[in-house]
Amino acid sequence: MEKPAKKSQDKVIITCAVTGSVHTPTMSPYLPLTPDEIARQSIEAAEAGAAIIHLHARDPEDGRPTADPKIFDQFVPRIKAETDAVINITTGGSTRMTLEERLAYPLQAKPEMCSLNMGSMNFSIHPAARRISEWRHDWEKPYIEGMEDLIFRNTFRDIKHILQVLGEGCGTRFEFECYDVGHLYNLAHFVDEGLIQGPLFIQTIYGVLGGLGPDPENLVLMRTTADRLFGRENYRFSILGAGRHQMPLLTMGAVMGGNVRVGLEDSLYLGKGQLAASCAEQVRKIRRILEELSLEIATPDEARALLGLKGRERVAF
Q1: Residues 6+ apart with CB under 8 A from 131
Q2: Which tens digits make up the pLDDT trace of 53-87?
Q3: Angle 86-71-146 (CA atoms, 0-180°, nearest 5)?
Q4: What CATH number is attached to the domain comprising 149?
Q5: What was the pLDDT predicted at 10?
Q6: How many C-beta atoms surround the C-beta of residue 18 within 10 A?
């Protein structure tokens, strides 16, 4: 497996996941929904220090998640034109989308990076519906409550297909989303099969119902397991803490040598009881914490070098 570039090896890559497909408009007035809002928050996050912008799309009429390439096309080229950030397109979409729908825009855009969930799993925030009495849109309540009986599907065949058509076919590299220890072993399987070449970018995720809990000890578990499976020199470790666990787990993970991911997809809050007014607020906060810890922040081009990306000139948008 190819070793990561040593230049800027100790710098921290900040990823910002701008809107996602989990939170709904009622949960925060600041959640970006329209193409203009998604573009604007992405650009502000990049200006604040995010090297990678992770993107989903929303129906601008009512904010529901969509995989429509025509909607992606209304904000992705604009973000590229106004920033030098790495653009990372979801292949996860939502639990209600087919694999074909989830891949429609990535295959069209051929981005430098895509996210890739490393297994099928229960994935839910259905208890959140109990705390909301009035909803802005009719679709929201059944969408959130319905997660209790849905599975996010990514079978071994699904993952293999994504690796072949996007990885081999488009030169796209991946943010490997690992919600549990078993997902690391799934990733190791595909490395052993020769379908993935390093350096790996492993996004470990904590605090989602259905995945690994937000206990700090779990960061050590995932880090040491990845070390055994891949060798520390062959991968970049990153941390995603859901909801209120965002900043504490990211800080701990960064001290352990990890990279970090923020954004309104992962948490709607900036602090206890305080909604984040933008993704950029979260980027600025984690950047301030990292710099107080004497850690340096990677630029987009430094992130490209560390992750072995093909470069912004080789995308199709």
Answers
A1: none
A2: 999 999 999 999 999 999 999 999 999 999 999 99
A3: 95
A4: 3.20.20.70
A5: 75
A6: 28
How many whole angstroms from its chain centre is CA 246? 13
**171's torsion region: left (phi>0), alpha (psi -120 to 50) or beta?**
left
If one counts the domains in the chain, the total is 1
Task: Tell me whether residue 59 is in a domain.
Answer: yes
Q: Taking the CA atoms of the chain, what radius of gyration do you get in angstroms?
A: 18
Give CA–CA dist 6/21, Å, rounded: 35
Angle at 107 between CA 34 and CA 43, to 5 degrees: 35
What amino acid occupies position 184? L
Close Cβ partners of 313 (under 8 Å, ≥ 6 residues apart) = none
Q: Which domain holds residue 306?
A: 14-314
Classify residue 21: in a domain, yes or no.
yes
Contact of 177 with 146, CB cutoff 8 Å? no
In a domain, 6, yes or no: no
pLDDT tens readout for residues 86-117: 999 999 999 999 999 999 999 999 999 999 99
